[in-house]
Recover the amino acids of this structure.
């Protein structure tokens, strides 16, 4: 979003079809050379003054702007095709941020406004009091006309009048670009997709507007979308000298050229609705701006806004007048929120990709570590065999004997029952027991309390004993029945038949 305290000036002209497809014709009325010997400042009305300042990148704002003297002639060295070497100067005392002195017309306007709000004499009866209240309502709203006298024209109420209630103070980021950077903002009434697809044609059209000088090169610094299907394009011009050196054209110089009537009309044919130089404010300009509240803003509110500034080094208070300005800032905020969300999504995707790469890299590192260990062992074995072959046939030397003694000592310490070997055996036994218990526990799925298990066994034992006793009784009864049957058979005479 361009850093602008006022309403965007300039209306885009109709866009006939031309060489630059979609941006209109590129017909210019500039001279054959890119000369700025007599730059002029247009009288576009700003938000807080009568004349638009052309000295720095705040667009239409804050008091009357001083003229820019760029000199005449071709200049020396990198003169930028006739810019000359005279530097631009700005007088703060009576121009950029100073409060304009009240003229008699302004005094009369203030008197007429006070009369319309407090004591109109239009009707000469009690209806004048109702008219005064109506005028006050219009003044609070910031629109309409206040009638107060039959012989004097009515007062035109605008949102800049000191009685308008729909005002607030916000904060905007101050640009930190220097004039030597040469950055100029062009706002197109086109979508970002159209601008990017036809960016080369746009550069060629701007080069034609600059006179087609072969020593000048148009470069695009950035393209950013804006609300209401507008696009902000930041450009800078590089000038090459015959000796091979190059430099950027100062932003104020390029902006002054774009504000010339014939150049401005050519830019409007390309679809440019607004342009400004993006340069930083000097400490003196910031101080002068903060000391003088804008027109129509209560000094108390302005002082409170300076106190509430969250970052005085980077932010500057700006007035918000009317609902349109509030809506514009809301759209800009929504646009920036969408851009931030898009950037966060991109960062999130990058983080996910980096996490995947990290996992893959860690696996490869572990694999390479295992491979390095195996190669180290193989290398050690090769060295051992090579050393054995090299020492074959030689007597044991003193250092080798010393190494053998040390190895025997270490071997004895390892084999000692109460030393490392015993501890290692104990640890191995504990590990085996834990593995055994773990396997057993893994196989068991149900567990019964020991007391309950004992009671169950006792109950089953009693049941078994009862069944055994019952079986013995049945056997005894069977024997008794057999005995009775035998006795009966013996006591009955033969030949008797029971019917």
């Amino acid at each position: 979003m361009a850093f602008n305290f006022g309403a965007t000036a300039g209306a885009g002209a109709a866009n006939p079809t031309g060489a630059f497809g979609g941006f209109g014709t590129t017909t210019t009325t500039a001279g054959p050379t890119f000369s700025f010997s007599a730059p002029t400042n247009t009288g576009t009305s700003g938000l807080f003054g009568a004349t638009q300042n052309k000295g720095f990148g705040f667009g239409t704002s804050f008091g009357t702007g001083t003229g820019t003297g760029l000199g005449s002639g071709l200049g020396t060295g990198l003169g930028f095709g006739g810019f000359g070497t005279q530097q631009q100067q700005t007088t703060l005392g009576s121009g950029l941020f100073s409060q304009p002195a009240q003229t008699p017309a302004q005094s009369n306007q203030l008197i007429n406004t006070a009369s319309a709000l407090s004591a109109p004499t239009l009707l000469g009866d009690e209806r004048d009091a109702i008219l005064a209240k109506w005028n006050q309502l219009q003044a609070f709203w910031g629109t309409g006309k206040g009638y107060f006298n039959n012989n004097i024209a009515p007062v035109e109420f605008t949102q800049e009048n000191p009685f308008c209630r729909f005002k607030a103070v916000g904060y905007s980021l101050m640009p930190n670009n220097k004039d030597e950077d040469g950055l100029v903002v062009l706002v197109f009434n086109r979508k970002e997709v159209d601008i990017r697809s036809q960016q080369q044609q746009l550069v060629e059209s701007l080069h034609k507007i600059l006179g087609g000088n072969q020593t000048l090169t148009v470069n695009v610094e950035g393209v950013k979308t804006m609300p209401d299907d507008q696009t902000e394009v930041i450009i800078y011009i590089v000038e090459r000298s015959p000796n091979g050196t190059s430099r950027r054209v100062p932003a104020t110089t390029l902006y002054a050229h774009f504000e010339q009537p014939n150049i401005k009309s050519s830019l409007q044919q390309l679809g440019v609705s607004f342009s400004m130089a993006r340069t930083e404010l000097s400490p003196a300009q910031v101080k002068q701006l903060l000391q003088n509240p804008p027109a129509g803003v209560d000094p108390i509110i302005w002082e409170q806004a300076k106190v509430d500034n969250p970052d005085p080094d980077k932010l500057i208070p700006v007035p918000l007048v009317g609902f349109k300005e509030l809506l514009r800032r809301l759209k800009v905020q929504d646009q920036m929120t969408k851009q931030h969300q898009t950037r966060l999504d991109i960062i999130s995707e990058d983080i996910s990709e980096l996490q995947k790469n990290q996992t893959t890299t860690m696996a490869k590192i572990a694999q390479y570590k295992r491979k390095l260990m195996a190669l180290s062992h193989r290398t050690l074995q090769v060295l051992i065999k090579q050393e054995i072959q090299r020492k074959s046939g030689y007597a044991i030397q003193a250092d080798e004997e010393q190494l053998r003694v040390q190895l025997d000592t270490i071997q004895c310490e390892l084999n000692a029952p109460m030393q490392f070997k015993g501890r290692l055996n104990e640890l191995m036994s504990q590990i085996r027991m834990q593995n055994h218990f773990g396997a057993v526990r893994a196989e068991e799925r149900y567990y019964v309390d020991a007391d309950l298990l004992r009671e169950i066994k006792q109950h089953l034992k009693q049941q078994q004993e009862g069944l055994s006793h019952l079986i013995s009784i049945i056997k005894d009864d069977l024997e008794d029945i057999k005995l009775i049957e035998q006795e009966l058979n013996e006591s009955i005479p033969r030949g008797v038949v029971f019917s």
